[in-house]
Amino acid sequence: MKKMTLLVFSSLLLLFPAEAFQSFQPGEITPSVKSTSNPGQSYAVFLPSDYTGSKAHPILFVMDPRGQALLPLERFKDAADSLGYIAISSYNTQSDTDQSVTIEAINTMINDAFQLFSVDTTRFYLAGFSGTARLSWIFGYEIKNYIAGIIGIGAGNNNGFFLADSVAAHGIPFNYYGASGFHDFNYFELLELDPALTEMEFPHHVSFFEGAHRWADQEILQDALYWMELTEMKKGTIATDSVLVTNLYTDWQAKADSFKELNDPYHLYLHLLSMQRTFSGFEFLDTSFTSSELDALGNNTDLVKLSSDIDLSISGFYNYAKLVQDLYHLYDISDTKLTFEKIDKDLDISFLIEQRSVEKDIYKLRSVNVFLELVFTQSSFYQTRKYINKGDFKNAYVMLQVANSIKPGNSNLCYQSARVNAQLKRWDEAIENLQCIESQPWFEGFLSRDSLLDGLKKSRAYKRYARDRDQN
Q1: Residue 207 belongs to what H/E stretch?
Q2: Spatial distance between the Cα atoms of 178 and 153, rounded to a whole number of angstroms
Q3: pLDDT in tens, 240-268
């Protein structure tokens, strides 16, 4: 991997012009800031309400894998405000591309933060989703003297060997908060990472939520910042706030109760273990709830069998993931003319969809959804993009059929299908795809700038569509 170009922090610390932050309004998001040090880069900025420039603040650097800076920043904002964090979110970070793209973006944010704001150089935090969540582990170890914590959503670490080797060579320089949706195709990855970090005595918490592969909701992202704050209190680097600790414990108790309501003893157990690790040592806190619930689970004879069943599900998923990868690679290199029926048969997609509709066991249902989410993402994004780039729109069409069988009407599918159907001169289908996404805020830009729609816009079907839109 290309090394990060580390900044010369000592010289940058001198660059705090008093007027630098006056164009930013404390307590509000500045939605777009063009970097003065690197004009090709831009980001959104949030300054906490108490920001004056007279004291150093912890700072959160947010890395969306598609450069959607505002989406996660909006969800972090309230917690950042209450805790006094500066937050900067890049429009240039990317995954599924050369790592140098995100390296340049993170270096730009760090460099500009030093020039514009008063930052605490011992309390940098990184937050990433999917591919940028993986990169955050690498960045954390590269600038380990500055990183206090990383927040990884929808993916674990780069790989197990990297983490084990890094811990062995460099110790544990920061704290980790991870989260995944129960239907995320990386769900099992986070599920495996949790006990591995426990064994390494790596300070961590892993949270799970309803949903697929996406940024977690505001509740989880705010919880991540509060958890980071609490870990600093335990280390003695900041004063203990008993109100914050007690409120967070109450929130986590409610999370435990929600697992009980779902009849989910496995995740309840993992959550309670994390509660025990996180809140131990605060003498003012009554943690009897945690100990009593763990004692009760210790008598749950189903938990051992459930753990074994989940281990089998994890193994089954990795086998299925390899099958998907190998088959899609074989389709690609053999220039196979694809059909929906062939892929459906090869990957048991219809069977999985049927299972999704009838399965009652919560753990089996999650596994089925994870399998389907993997096929959906591979088909709708990676394979469709690959075939479009090759100019093979017929196979791209089939991949979109596969994805649509799993999530019909998905906006990303409608977007890609409009492009592919336009190239295949399936005018009526392309118009239906446009109607599916015309309420999206990015629709007009897509319509005016995407060259794959040029042929469609000359068709009679499109002219009727445009006339009807104008009348409405």
Answers
A1: strand 204-209
A2: 6
A3: 999 999 999 999 999 999 999 999 999 99
